[in-house]
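> Could you send the TetR family transcriptional regulator prediction when you get a chance?

Sure thing. Input:
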Amino acid sequence: MTNGGQMDDEALKNLPNGVTLSWGIVKKPRRGPKGELSIPMIVDAAVAIADRDGLSAVSMSRVAQSLGFTTMSLYRYITSKEDLLVLMQNAVCDIPVPPEGYQPDWREEMRDFVQACVLVFREHPWFADIPIKGIPLTPNNLRFIDWMLRIMRDFPLNDFEKMSFVLLLSSYARACGMIQRDMDHALKAGESIDSFNGLNYTAALKHLVKQDSFPDLYPILMSGAYTGETESPIGDDLAFGLERILDGIEHYLEVKRSMQP
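Output:
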C-alpha cells in the first residue's frame, strides 16, 4: 500500500462508524446463509418503524423482530443504535437533485431547495428528533449542500459567504419543516386548523391580553392578525419569510457586484 493510501485509511478512521457505513467504505460482514440481512434492509425497516410509531419506537431488537431475525444478527452489520440513526437520516435524504439548468431563476431553485428540505420533515416527522451533532458528513446530506452550492456557483461570493447562505436557507427550512410537521401531527390527532392557528381562542385572548401589560401585542391581537381572525394580505407566513430571505441575498449580491472593478 502506498503512503497516500495509508494516509487515506488513517483519515477515514476519524469518521464516526455510522458515517463510514453510509459511504460503504467498511468491511462487509461475513457471508451468512441465503436470505441473510443487509444494511439497506435494516435501515429501511428502522425508517418504517420510525415513520409509523416515532423515533422512540426504534430499537435494534424491534428492527430485528420486524425482519424476522435475532438482535445479534443486526449487530453483524450495524454495531449500535447511534450508527443506525445516522444511516436513517442519510436514507431519508436520498432525494433526487434536479438536473442543472432546470430552473432559469436562482430564486426559484432556492425555493425548490427549501421545499425539498421541508418535505423531509413532513414525510419523516422523527427526522428533527435526532440532535444535530456537527456538520453533515453522509453522502445524501452532502448532495443537498452541493445542490445549494451549484445554485450559487457564479455568484460573486467567497466560499465562506456561500456556506453561510447554505446554513441560512437550511436553518429556515428546518424551522419551517418542524412547524409543518407539528401542524400535521396536531391535525392527525384531531385538532382543527383553527385551534392550531389560534382562531378558536381569539375571544379569550382579547379578554386576557390588556393594553397596559402587552402594549405592542394588544393592537396586533385586536386587529385580528395574531390569530388569523382577518385574512392576511401577505399570504402564507412561511413563504413570505422565505421571500424576504431571498430579497436579502439578492441585495447582498447587488452590493458585491457594485464593488467589483
